[in-house]
Specification:
It is built from 21 helices and twelve strands. The protein is of the alpha/beta class. The chain has two domains: about 300 residues, ABC transporter transmembrane region fold (Up-down Bundle), CATH 1.20.1560; about 270 residues, P-loop containing nucleotide triphosphate hydrolases (Rossmann fold), CATH 3.40.50. A six-stranded mixed sheet has the order 6-9-10-3-11-12, with helices on both faces. The protein has a four-stranded antiparallel sheet with strand order 2-1-4-5, with helices on one face. The two termini are about 70 Å apart. The structure holds adenosine-5'-triphosphate (ATP) and magnesium ion (MG).
Length: about 600
Amino acid sequence: MLRTLAAQIKQYKRSVLLTPVWTSLEVVVEVLIPYVTASLIDKGINAGNMHEVYRYGAMMVGMACLSMLFGILAGRFAAYSSTGVAANLREAMYRNIQRFSFSDIDKYGTASLVTRMTTDVANVQGAIQMLLRVSFRAPLSLVFSIFMCLFIDSRLSLIFIIAMVVLTTCLALLISRAAKLFKEIFPKYDSLNLVVKENIDAIKVVKAYAREHHEMSKFDKAALALYNLNLKAEGLMALNGPVMNLVVYACMISLSWFGARFIVGGTLTTGELTSLFTYVMTILGSLMMLSMIFVQLTQSAASGSRIAEVIEEVPDMLDPTEPDTVITDGRVDFDHVCFSYKAAGDAGVIDTASLESGDYALSDIDLHFDSGETIGIIGGTGSGKSTLGSLVARLYDATKGTVSVGGKDVRSYSQDALRQKVVTVLQQSVLFSGTILDNLRWGNPDATREECIEACKAACADEFISSFPDGYDTVIDQGGTNVSGGQRQRICIARALLKNPSVLILDDSTSAVDTATDAGIRRTFAEKIPGVTKIIISQRILSIMDADRIVVMDSGKVNGIGTHKELLEGNEIYKDIWSMQTSGGEGDFDEPVNTAKEALA
Ligand SMILES: Nc1ncnc2c1ncn2[C@@H]1O[C@H](COP(=O)(O)OP(=O)(O)OP(=O)(O)O)[C@@H](O)[C@H]1O
Ligand SMILES: [Mg+2]
């Protein structure tokens, strides 16, 4: 972990190294000031020599200015280094997260990744600053003061040696217990962030269902768990102060007791006893400071390891050493493919033999689609349609068997090249803030305005976009909340078309589009991109009935494959779906159902 974090010091190495230098100089000057003061009193005031008073006075002013200068430099360098390293850590995490596969993201969860990039980094930043500023200062003063104590009176030094042992033991006990609690705190932050993220993302759903109270209690529960743990840990750490005070006063009393005896015995002067008091205070103060560093370090060690975990995470899906970059055609083959979300991301760790049949989202899929074919995929919810689609663009790796595109295993291509040619319109259509044109060019930055309009026409999106006052320059709000669900889906389809794919996968991408427009999109697909393999996943038979072949999925298995007519004759599930969707004439299904029936006749 330390090595990973230290590697992010990068361009801040110089200031990281210089901070302790400034701090040490500050300490040296600070420590020397009392000597000058002593000389000023002895040689100046007591001797009645004003010349010496001015000389030492000027020296003290100069030293105070120097100490301030070094202090300012140390502070500035520490702040510069810690904020810089924190920025590097965030950048390193962000960069690696961009390489994450779907299963890596599933593993961490988005809320946890956000906590790690914010709260955890802030923690580490605080620790670095403290470490740079204090960690040199405290040991320096400690060593120097111990040396002075031993020098003045080694018998009395026994007192502070005992005090140091007692204080260190107590602090060690406290810190080790608190460290355990601090480790538990961060997962609690994750849970809290998860609740907040879910709520804010879905605030409209929450309001529509009047579930504010329920959401509030969910939040309270997560917040209370965090509060309780924090209270426990901070409560333990608060014992630090009283323990310190106890030891300090015990030291003072013992020093006074024995010191007074030595003074009476003539083996110690009053001046020496006074300076011993000062040094003992410095020693215990430095110990206290060191203990605070330990506390901060234990707190941030948990954060540090969470950050290092993200930076060190080797994405489970890596490109081969000599990847293929050319995808010749849109052929898609599934050769006895099985897939389990449990094994995803842990390939090689989980023994596939230990997986039970229930663990598989897909079992023994053997399908072969020709280039340019239009394939419909239908099945109940949770039957594995999206999972099947996601394997083609290698969003997940097959647990067993191989998925091939253009006749080659998808794992032999570079992911970038593969996803340039195999484009998936995901079930969840997401747009980014920016204009419609920005969103369209998101898939292909080089697309001209004309190409964008062409793609929108094919996706039946041109009509509604043109009706906006700002047309293609209409600004989309974050997440695409200012366009309707169906409009969003069509922009997403156009965005995918602009990539000139060889294989286009539409995962329920027209579910919010009315059936007439849906039919229009399929018509333009057939006319404009005949060579592209189109895999259309849908719950609606009307969306896929005119496909060349239709695959019926059931519980992760292929239940049947054939044309609409063949399936209606021989596949029970398909027949059921058909009769359910054609009977009853539910509103918007009326007209297209008639079209569908006509098509059948
Ligand atoms: N990220 C995931 N992690 C774990 N399990 C998952 C994940 N995504 C889906 N599953 C599980 O895999 C199975 C198949 O899911 P899939 O999303 O492929 O279904 P689907 O046919 O697309 O359903 P729908 O029509 O509702 O979209 C389901 O049992 C689901 O619970
Ligand atoms: Mg799905």
